[in-house]
Amino acid sequence: MSEKIPGLVSKAESILATCGTDQDLINEAIDLYSEALKLSASTKNPFSIDFAGIYYGYGDALLRDVENDQLLSSGMNTTGSMMPIASNKPLSDDIQNTEQAKAAHIDLDVIVDEDSSISEEEEEEDSAPIQKTKRLDSEKEIDNDPSNEADDVENLELAWEALETARDILSDSLDTQLKDKEKGSLIDAPQIISNLQLYVKVYLRLGDCGLAQSQKEQAVEDYTKAMNLLTLYKPELSREVSSCHLNIAEALEGDVNRAMPHYEASLRIILLEIAKLKEKRGESGVITQDEKNLVNLKEDIELQILEFKKDGNVLGGTSKTVIGFKKGDSSDSTPITTLQPRKKRKSDV
């Protein structure tokens, strides 16, 4: 592996961990991963397990770019109607913090010199709203630019290709590694668990790609594979599994009878987690932010289930099981290809 690659990847990962929806930082991360992939192409085995994380990171960053554009064009404050626990998407708090930081930056831009007169300060204050309005108008022009839509389509395709490449690399490696490992015996195999964790993240983002392209059945399949891989090293009643159920339910929007079991499964896990937190705090009575978030999520899911039942969209009874996934189903005949660097959008120039 080139000596430069770890540094590029480390910097990109650090940026994505804190960037929220900052477009410039997301673009910087994309460029860093792109450079890392160019360097990996000159190695002896550019599709070794060592590079799976780079393909995942590149695909994740590209997908964030697309999701960010969709978020801006829709005027939404979050990436979805409900935020799953330990979501694979940027948290709403990250978005709010980023917007606050941008607002602070705008305020600094319009600060007048201390030596200015009062009348000059008033004039500056009066012009500030106009400046901000012009800035917003220019942002709208960028959002409505047809070339940006074309860029999003191209970046989404590149993201999908990168994530599928990461999936194929991990599939080839894990199929071999898991042959002699029974479920529940992975505690002594940290490298396998690390690869499985990456594998889960890859399938979660592939599911997000499916949703972005309105391929809901493909999204359901990918989210389900992520959930079943997750249970190889996590308890079936863990929060991460609850999050997967919510992802599947969201992908099944419009198919109430298939979505309902996933909402109910997620709710059962959340209720158990809330009970654990209540027991843990005991007589102190101090409710943590974690517990508050779980209670809010519980109420959201309960409301969704109630609305389904009120509308009469649920047939008698609900399923006890969800779509299954057998080990080995993850691979397909999709060939691994060398990725080309994305094209720059106009706003990058």
Automatic annotation (TrEMBL):
Record field: compositional bias (Acidic residues): 115-127, 144-153
Pfam family, one: SHNi-TPR
Entry-linked SUPFAM superfamilies: TPR-like
Comp. bias regions, Polar residues: 331-340
Keyword Repeat carried by entry: yes
Skewed-composition ranges (Basic and acidic residues): 134-143
Keyword Repeat carried by entry: yes
Region (Disordered): 115-153, 326-349
Transmembrane intervals: none
Boundaries of every Tetratricopeptide SHNi-TPR domain copy: 201-231
Key words, A-Z: Repeat, TPR repeat
Name of the protein: Tetratricopeptide SHNi-TPR domain-containing protein
Species of the source: Blattamonas nauphoetae
